[in-house]
Amino acid sequence: MTPIALAIAGSDSGGGAGIQADLKTFSALGVYGASAITALTAQNTRGVQGIHDVPADFVAAQIDSVFSDLAVTAVKIGMLSQPAVIEAVAAALERHAIPRRIPVVLDPVMVATSGDRLISDDAVMLLRSRLMPLADLITPNLPEAASLLDEAPAADENGAAAQARRLVAAGAHGVLIKGGHAAGDESVDHLLTSEGLVRRFSGARHPTRNTHGTGCTLSAAVAAGLAKGLGLEAAVRAAKAYVAAAIAAADDLAIGEGHGPVHHFFAIWA
Hints:
alpha/beta; UDP-N-acetylmuramoyl-L-alanine:D-glutamate ligase; 3-stranded antiparallel β-sheet
């Protein structure tokens, strides 16, 4: 059976993040990608110039349409900027993904690489209370983890691991807390689950400013692995290897004047 992943996220008109990054990642990893768009952004490598939210009922209609016809094997969720959209997505998961035990990866996107905020303040806590418990894995970076916990960002690796534990205690089934915003020569991520899995992943940092869409790409790559039947740890490990290679090859591209995208098709393009 063809693995199919559904991305529920915002559109990036510049093509580096959001739905565009998700679909590129799925394609690069041999997974058929479907999409439900939650918001349109006017965006490029230099920043976000505007956001147009899709009505919640139409977000739900897109999700229902996909599930009514396609045999979805994983779901990835990205930018959800408004409470009504969060509620619509949660209800759709309860109709479709949860009864069928389809794995769900939630990337709690809050701020773009450029620093532009992508989610309203009143949506953050709803994301935590309503949607986080429905996901098999959430993939916050350090600022996003802090926002979900209403705490200051972790200052070091031990603090990040502690916040991952608190997110599991708060209802997350699995947490991959990403250390890309921390200092140091290595980027360290921590994977924890409510079933007791604890793993530490470290990797060398690549000296490039072309990291636009990194978080979207990682969560989509995890979802792709799950869609193909990998276990959670194996999916995370494969996703991290893919993203590391995409970042390492990012400077092979010349896209825009700001933070360019990672190279999703490094293994395919000459």
